[in-house]
Design goal:
402 residues; nine-stranded mixed sheet
Amino acid sequence: MTSPQTSGTRPLGVAAIGYAFMGQAHSNAWRTVANHFDVPDFEQKVLVGRDAVAGAAAAKKYGWSESATDWREVITRDDIDIIDICAPGWLHAEIATAALAAGKHVLVEKPLANSLAESESMVAAAQVARNVGVRSMVGFNYRRVPALALARKLIEEGELGTVRQVRASYLQDWLADSEAPMTWRLRKETAGSGALGDIASHAIDQIQHLLGDTVTAVSGKLHTFTTERPGPDGIEPVTVDDAVWATLSMAGGAMASVDVSRVALGQKNALRVEVYGTAGSLTFNLENPNELYFLNGTEPIEVQGFRRILVTEPEHPYISGWWPQGHVIGWEHSFTHQIRDFLHSIADGTDPSPSFEEGLGVQQVLAGIEASSAAGGLTVPVLAVETTPVNEPIETQLLHNS
C-alpha cells in the first residue's frame, strides 16, 4: 500500500467510476461543493466508464478533465488521490479493495456491497488502510439532508425523551407497470437484491443513525409481484424482490417498522420517517425535504400539535453554505454535503461516517431480513458490528459549515 497524497502539496485528484444516475449525482456534487463551502483544493481529474464514447461525453458534460475505461489503470495513477465509486453494487468490493490497497481514499455508493462476504472484505481493507491515513466512507447521502440532520440533533439532545417507536417507509413506483423492461437492478447476480438493498438500506441506516442505536433482531417478508419482465432477448425471470416489510428490535429498547416498495403506484421517492418518544415526536417525508415536523409533548395538551419547521435557516445543519432563509434546497444537495464532509475528513485526518463498518452493519440487518423471510417470518438475531468512532462531536459535524 502506498501512502496517500500529503495535504497541501497539490490539489487532491479525484476519479469517479460510473457515469449513469449516481455518477451524474456525484459529479454534480463535486462540481458545486467548492462554490458553497470552504473545502480542500481538489480537481475533477477523470470519469471512468465502460463505453468510451458515452464516457467521454459524460466527462465533458459533468466537468471532468478526461475520461477512461480502465479503472485498474486509473487507481495506479500518482495524480489520483480519491476514488468515488458510483458503479453498480457487484463491482464495489473489487474496486474499493484495490483502490484502498493503492493508497486512495474511497467513497462508495450504498449499499456497501451485494453480499456479506464482500462487505466484510471491504471492511478488512478499510481497516488496514486506515492505519496509514487512508479514509473510506459509504454514501448514505440522506444523513446529509438538513432536516434529517436536525432530527438527529434533536433526538441526541433529548428533545424526544426516550424513543419508543420508529416507522420508516420508502415507497417508489417505477416498477408498478408489469411491462416495464428488465434492468440489471432486477437480476440477483448483478443487484444482489431488489428493494431490500436499493431502498430498505436507506431506511435502516436512518433508523440506526437517528437513534444512535443498532438493530439486534429482525423479522421480515420479501415479495415479488411481477415475476417476469421483457428483456432484450425475450421474457426474463425477475430474481429479486419488489417490496419488503420488516420489524426491528433495537439495542436501546425501541421497536421499529420498515416497509419499502418499488411498485407503490403514485409514490415517486417517498422516504418517510416517524420517531415517537416519551417527550416528543418527529416526522419527515423526503418528497418535502425542507420540512421537519416536531411535536413537543411537554407542552400543555391544549396547545400540543406537530409544528412545521422549515429547515432553511443559517443555524440549521449545512444551510449557511446556501441561500437566504426560505430559499429551499433539494435532493441533490445531500450529495454536495456528503462530498464536503468527506473532503474535510481527509484534510483533518479524521474517520468519516458512515464508515465501511457502519455499511456492514446495515448489510447484516438486510441479510437478517432476507433470512427471516426465507424462514417464514421467523425472528432472527443480528450480530453487532464494531463501528469506527467519529472524531468530531455531532454538533461540530453538523454546524461547521464553512
